[in-house]
Amino acid sequence: MNIEYHKFYSNHLNRDMEFKVYGSSGKPFLCIPCQSGRFYEFEDMHMLDVYAPYIESGDIQVFTIDSLDSETLACGGDPRARIERHESWIKYIVEEAIPVFSQINGSSAEGVKFAVTGLSLGALHAATLYFRFPDIFDAVMGLSGIYSNEYYFGGYHDDLTYMNSPQQFIKGMSGDHPYIEKYRSGRMIFCVGQGAWETETLDSTKYFSEVLAEKNIGAWVDIWGYDVKHDWDWWYVQAAYFLPKLLEG
What confidence tens digit (pLDDT) does each residue in 30-59 have? Predict the structure, then answer.
């Protein structure tokens, strides 16, 4: 398997941002780490083992990046400053990273869209990217996510917290919004267990399912059993089960 390490300077974040690339061709996948995770988490925590057969066959090419959660959602301090920093991270992904990744993938001229996946807090980020930017992303897989950033901001609300909270902005979206038809043509998988440490994620995933159903957006929301914990052991199993189905379309 071809594995590459890269970094470039982000003008949105005013720092070097690192990433890794796995594979040489195929549909581009953007993988978001867990809370405050690093770009090498995908490999260090052995999620690479699940994706490896599809990478080696040339079906997918995976790009892994850093989160900025320790400066944004998963920290204290002024909520407006935190959400502004988070929005800068979103702009880094969409306006800086994706063009670089598309060039590496060779898909920029062909208009190939990305899939985006995430675990735990990474699932919120993955859903936010998919639903905010359907011209860039056409597939999403979120495992054990909370799909509202109210969990991280408490009672604080503003325009940017709204834009980065899929439960809220999809619920507030008009039924004839042009994005809704784009969502319907995409592939959406959200899974959560009912075991240890999944109480908040289970409640959020169920509510998010209701919000999507209200807009007639046909996501696949799968609730697993009471033995299924909020932990890597189960995320491996879930990713292995859903990844081929995400690729089937």
Answer: 999 999 999 999 999 999 999 999 999 999
Res 151: pLDDT: 86
CB 60 within 8 A of CB 23: yes
Residue with tokens 């999507």: 212
Domains identified in the chain, total number: 1
Residue with tokens 């052995």: 46
If we measure between CA atoms, which residue out of 120, 4, 113 comes closest to residue 69? 120
Tell the burial category of 165 from Cβ atoms under 10 Å away from its Cβ (0-12, 13-18, 19+): buried
Sheet holding 3-10, edge to edge: 3-10, 15-22, 60-65, 27-32, 114-119, 137-143, 187-192, 220-223
Which residue is associated with the tokens 């549909």?
27
CATH, residue 73: 3.40.50.1820
Report pTM: 0.96
Whether 111 has a pLDDT exceeding 80, the answer reads: no
Classify the phi-psi angles of 120: left when phi > 0, otherwise alpha if psi is within -120 to 50, otherwise beta. Answer: left
Tokens of 54: 């599809």
Query: How far apart (Å, rounded) are the C-alpha atoms in residues 86 and 11?
Result: 14
Domain that holds residue 239: 3-248
